[in-house]
Every structure is written in structure tokens, then in C-alpha cells.
């Protein structure tokens, strides 16, 4: 009986709790529905008010702007002032932008030199500050003999002297320079004459080499343009000497020429299409037959440099013997003496006969070899046997170079068996 009563009370309590929970849920749902309607109504009211505010703001702004524009346009003085101010502002911005670039290029052309220029006599601010004494000497230096220290065949010397005189008068009369092609074996005096020609004519010289331009690819176009722009800024005029020019000025109809070299060649042709009062072009090559036909068309004169003959070789031997041996032996600061039992006039003539086929550069290296042999001896005395040994070595080296020069690679290479 007691147990049944307890179960009845528990069941009744459970039912009451369930009814309370159900009533609570229904109440919360009713409140949520009412709140949702209130929130929706509030959102609609807020959206309506926001839209109304935006429309009123747009209307007000349009009215203000319209009135301002109307007032502004009704006064021509204000219009002119504003337009002028905007124009000056835009001009100042673009002027500063491009002015800085132009100023940078001018400073670069005055202070520095293009990357392609290996050597130049043109003065700049940096060199002037570093070497003031040398700069002063160069400024007051008088023109010298264009063939001073250059030993060539008489007919070639006469031709080069005419070129030097014509170039000097062209510079003095502000005329158009003639372009020159110097062809011949290496070591025959082409670079020496180009430098001397520039100094004799009162011009600056700049030495370039085709081997530096060929590997640059597409960047060679920009580099070539920089060289010619730099040359135009010179007051004295620039002699542009391009050594080994056939490295990048070769024929364009060859299939093996790269697009970069082709573009560089076209840029070079564009810059040299007309005669110039600012620069003189001098090309040097050992293989002029490889030049593009347009390059040959731009050359006004062709000079052939040949290997020195017997008379020229003897003059060269005497000249370099005096420069590298005789003059140093007369000073106490050099450890070098000449043996007394040698007739050097006869010896120089003998060496000239033995050095057939050698260039002026190779003969100068023989004299340097004599000097080195004297320095390396115990007593610093140059003997006849030492001179003969150096000459024999130079002749053997020249013979080996000639064999390498005439050696041709086979057209086909046989496969090596495994």
C-alpha cells in the first residue's frame, strides 16, 4: 500500500513538471514570435530612415556641389587661377621626374664612362681629383708627331701622316670626320697609331673591343647607344677605336649569328649612318672580309698594315733596345749593364735578319725578354748568348703560332669506340 502511494506521488510529480516545462516552452515561443515581429519592424524602420538619410545627403551634396560649380564657373578669374595651378603642379611633377633622369644621365656622361670603353684619354671630375698634376700636363700638352715611336713602312707612314694632317685640319675647322678601317695582322701598330692620331688632332680617344660587345646579347644595343651618347657630349671630339671589330660587325646573312649580335649591329649601323662632327670612327680587324657590307660602306678610307720589312725590323730592334736596355743602364736605379765585347749595331742588324715574319709587338717582347734576362742574371750583365737565347725562343714561338693558325679542324669527327 505504501509502495503504491509513493509511485503514485512520483508519477503525479513527473506529470506536473512536464506540464510546467511545456507551459514554459510555449511562453518562450510566444515571446520569441512577438520579439521577432518587433525586430523586423524595427529593421524596416531603420532601413527606411537610412535610405531617407542617404537620399537627403545626396540631394544636399549635389545641391552644394552644383551651387559651388555654378559659382566657380561664373567667375573666370577663379577658373583661370585653378587651371593654371593644376597645370603648374602637373608640370612640376613630370618636370622633376624627367629632370632627375636627364640630370643623372648628364652627370654620368661627365663623371663616368660607358662600360664598353676600356681606355680613354677624356678627362672627368674623378680623374682630375685623383691625378691633378697629370691632368694639368695633359691640358697644356702640345700636339706631337703622330708617328712618334711608331715604325712602319715608308709608304704606309706617308699615308698615315696624310690622314693625321687631314684629321687635325678637320678638327680645327669643325668639319665632318672620315671613318677609317685599319686592317692587318696583330701587333703591327694599329692601336698605337689610333691613340697618336687622337692626341695629334686635339681629340679624345676611346678604345673599345668587339670581344666585349659580342657576349652581351640584347644588352649590347643599350651599351652601344650609351657609347655614342657619351661621345656626343665631348667638346673636343672623340676618336672611337674599335679593336677586333669583326667580333660583332660580321655579316648578317650568316645563320650562326645570334639575334643579340644582329640587333647590336643594327644599332651600330643606325648610329654611324651619317658623317659626324662629334666622333671619328676607326675600326681595326685582322679579318676584314667578315665585315657586313653596310660596315664597309661606312668606311671612307681603308689602310692596310703589314708586317715590318727588314729595314723596319732593324729600326724596331734599335728603338726597343734603346728604350728597354740602353736608357735603364744609364741610371743607377736599374740593375742592368751591357757587355762591352758586343757590337750592338751589328747585333741589331743580325737580329733583324733573323726575325723575318715577326710583328712589331713580338720584337718589343724580345727586348723585354732581354731586360728580364739581365735582371735575373747574377751580375746584371746582358751577354750575347743571353740575347741569342731570347731571340731563338721568340722565333720558335712565332713558328708554333703560324702552325696553329693554319691548322684546320676536321669536318667530321669519327666516333670513339667504347
UniProtKB/TrEMBL annotation:
Protein's name in the database: ATPase family AAA domain-containing protein isoform 1
PANTHER family named in the record: ATPASE FAMILY AAA DOMAIN-CONTAINING PROTEIN 3 (PTHR23075:SF0), PUTATIVE ATP-ASE (PTHR23075)
Protein's cellular compartments: Mitochondrion inner membrane; Mitochondrion matrix, Mitochondrion nucleoid
Gene3D superfamilies from the UniProt entry: P-loop containing nucleotide triphosphate hydrolases
Molecular functions per Gene Ontology: ATP binding; ATP hydrolysis activity; zinc ion binding
GO biological process, one term: mitochondrion organization
GO cellular component: mitochondrial inner membrane; mitochondrial nucleoid
InterPro entries per record: AAA+_ATPase (IPR003593), ATAD3_N (IPR021911), ATPase_AAA_core (IPR003959), P-loop_NTPase (IPR027417)
CDD domains (UniProt xref): RecA-like_ATAD3-like (cd19512)
Keywords linked to the UniProt accession: ATP-binding, Coiled coil, Membrane, Mitochondrion, Mitochondrion inner membrane, Mitochondrion nucleoid, Nucleotide-binding
Claim: Nucleotide-binding is one of the keywords in the record: yes
Ranges where the AAA+ ATPase domain occurs: 176-309
Main localization category: mitochondrion
Amino acid at each position: 500500500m505504501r509502495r503504491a502511494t509513493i509511485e503514485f506521488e512520483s508519477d503525479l510529480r513527473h506529470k506536473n513538471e512536464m506540464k510546467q516545462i511545456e507551459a514554459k516552452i510555449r511562453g518562450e515561443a510566444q515571446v520569441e514570435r512577438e520579439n521577432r515581429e518587433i525586430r523586423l519592424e524595427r529593421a524596416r524602420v531603420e532601413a527606411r530612415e537610412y535610405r531617407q538619410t542617404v537620399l537627403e545627403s545626396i540631394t544636399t551634396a549635389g545641391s552644394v556641389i552644383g551651387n559651388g560649380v555654378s559659382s566657380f564657373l561664373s567667375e573666370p578669374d577663379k577658373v583661370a587661377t585653378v587651371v593654371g595651378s593644376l597645370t603648374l603642379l602637373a608640370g612640376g611633377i613630370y618636370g622633376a621626374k624627367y629632370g632627375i633622369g636627364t640630370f643623372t644621365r648628364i652627370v654620368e656622361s661627365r663623371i663616368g664612362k660607358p662600360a664598353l670603353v676600356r681606355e680613354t684619354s677624356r678627362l672627368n671630375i674623378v680623374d682630375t681629383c685623383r691625378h691633378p698634376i697629370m691632368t694639368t700636363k695633359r691640358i697644356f700638352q702640345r700636339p706631337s708627331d703622330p708617328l712618334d715611336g711608331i715604325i712602319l713602312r715608308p709608304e704606309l707612314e706617308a699615308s698615315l701622316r696624310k690622314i693625321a694632317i687631314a684629321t687635325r685640319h678637320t678638327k680645327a675647322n669643325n668639319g665632318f670626320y672620315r671613318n677609317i678601317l685599319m686592317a692587318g695582322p696583330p701587333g703591327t701598330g694599329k692601336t698605337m697609331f689610333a691613340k697618336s692620331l687622337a692626341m695629334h688632332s686635339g681629340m679624345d680617344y676611346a678604345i673599345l673591343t668587339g670581344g666585349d660587345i659580342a657576349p652581351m646579347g640584347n644588352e649590347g644595343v643599350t651599351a652601344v647607344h650609351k657609347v655614342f651618347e657619351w661621345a656626343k657630349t665631348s667638346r673636343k671630339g672623340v676618336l672611337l677605336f674599335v679593336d677586333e671589330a669583326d667580333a660583332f660587325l660580321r655579316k648578317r646573312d650568316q645563320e650562326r649569328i645570334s639575334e643579340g649580335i644582329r640587333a647590336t649591329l643594327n644599332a651600330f649601323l643606325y648610329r654611324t649612318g651619317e658623317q659626324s662632327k662629334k666622333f671619328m670612327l676607326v675600326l681595326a680587324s685582322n679579318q676584314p672580309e667578315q665585315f657586313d657590307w653596310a660596315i664597309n660602306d661606312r668606311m671612307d678610307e681603308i689602310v692596310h698594315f703589314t708586317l715590318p720589312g727588314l729595314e723596319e725590323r732593324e729600326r724596331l730592334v734599335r728603338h726597343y733596345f734603346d728604350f728597354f736596355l740602353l736608357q735603364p743602364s744609364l741610371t743607377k736605379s736599374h740593375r742592368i749593364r751591357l757587355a762591352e765585347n758586343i757590337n750592338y749595331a751589328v747585333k741589331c742588324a743580325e737580329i733583324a735578319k733573323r726575325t723575318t715574319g715577326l710583328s712589331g709587338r713580338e720584337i718589343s717582347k724580345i727586348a723585354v725578354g732581354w731586360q728580364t734576362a739581365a735582371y735575373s742574371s747574377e751580375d746584371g750583365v746582358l751577354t750575347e748568348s743571353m740575347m741569342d737565347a731570347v731571340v731563338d725562343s721568340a722565333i720558335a714561338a712565332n713558328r708554333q703560332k703560324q702552325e696553329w693558325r693554319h691548322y684546320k679542324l676536321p669536318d667530321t669527327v669519327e666516333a670513339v669506340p667504347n
